[in-house]
Amino acid sequence: MNNHPTIPATEAFRLLSTNNQTAVIDVRSEGEYEKAHFENTVNIPILSDVHRHDVGLTYKTEGSEAAKALGHKLVSGEYKERMIQQWCESIKSHPQQPALIFCWRGGLRSRLAQDWVYQQGLEVIRVESGYKDLRHEALKIIENPAPFVVLSGMTGSGKTRLIHKLQRFVDLEALASHRGSAFGGHVGRSQPQQATFENKLAQSLYQIAGNFVLEDESPNIGRCHVPDLFYARMVPAPMVMIETPARVRALEIFKEYIQAPFAGGMPLQELENSFAKNVERIRNKLGGLECDNIKTMLNQSFQFDALNEDFTDAYLDWIERLLTHYYDKLYIHSLSLKSRKTLFKGSWQDCLDFLVDSQERTSLQEIDQ
Fold it and tell me: Which residues of the chain does CATH 3.40.50 include?
């Protein structure tokens, strides 16, 4: 087999997380990639899901040599030429840095792919031990993050909007493609698989220095689960809390969850159906009577134009009721279970000023050192 260059997974992970000028090719099958992958990689499989199934079946029934022979037969002719062309195009699209390539364990698939690329006169570096060791690096980073501050505040207090004003933050909800509540799904966007979410988190953590900020979250963000060891660090982390009246929070939610999608072309009827369905999902926690009350108010509000300020109160009434009768109670209970040091409490702007000042002071200390 070839003696072409390799790179340790530790260094490959650094490039994956900090340098988007590097072409990184994952030659695992599309199913493997969908189940778990890293940001800034492109999936150009050497064996498709169907190929892998056939090779695996042959391995079980006829042995390893027969399986290898079938694999070489499947990856030949026009299929092979098209695949090599795609690899080469990806490598040429990032001429600034040497390209990387990997499979599951850095074995036969990536070795073959690397050899074929070299035969085309291009260079590509194989990641030692492949995805398996890259994943190991990701888990190490998740288990040992830099020090951070948790931004707390009841639903609708503008936590996500605030952290994006900071220099150093990790947006867990963006990584999970979910806004963290029963109404948090992004229309038209699916959530990543669990391992992919964890890999994205690790890459974000790798990029960032200490004293970063992340939002207070439940262990589950939609179907994505915050890794247990990382969440265990969130529970006692120092906290900054936004204090905002319920009506103001209701307006924040109205603008983000109703006005913005409606202005973007989503029909009011579709929005109403989505909200009504989600309210129904928490019927047992709300109580039947309260659930019916909120759904009635919700239905009445959606008879009005969501962009007409004269009708804003009709929307705010049921949103505020949902906050005070459900979300606020959940949040207060969740906070009671965590022993956190409160660094600061105040309005949205005051919390922003505090955190900006805190990060600037930390940056100056780092320069002095």
Answer: 145-368
Residue 10's pLDDT is what?
A: 97
Report the pLDDT value the prediction gives residue 184, as an integer from 0 to 100.
56
Integer Cα distance of 105 and 125 in angstroms: 14
Residue ranges of alpha helices (H) inside 259-347 are 260-263, 268-281, 283-286, 288-301, 312-322, 328-336
Residue partners of 32: CB distance under 8 A and separation at least 6: 104, 131
Give the residue numbers marked as catalytic.
Answer: 103
SS3 169: strand
Q: Determine the Cα–Cα distance for residues 201 and 174; give it in Å rounded to an integer.
A: 10
Query: What is the CATH architecture assignment of 145-368?
Result: 3-Layer(aba) Sandwich (3.40)
6-136, CATH topology level: Oxidized Rhodanese; domain 1 (3.40.250)
Asked if 202 contacts 138 with a C-beta cutoff of 8 angstroms, the reply is yes
**Those residues with Cβ within 8 angstroms of residue 69's Cβ, 6 or more apart along the chain or in another chain:** none
The letter for the amino acid at 228 is D
- Where are the domain boundaries for CATH 3.40.250.10 in the chain? 6-136
pLDDT in tens, 115-173: 999 999 999 999 999 999 999 999 999 999 999 999 999 999 999 999 999 999 999 99
pTM of the full structure = 0.90
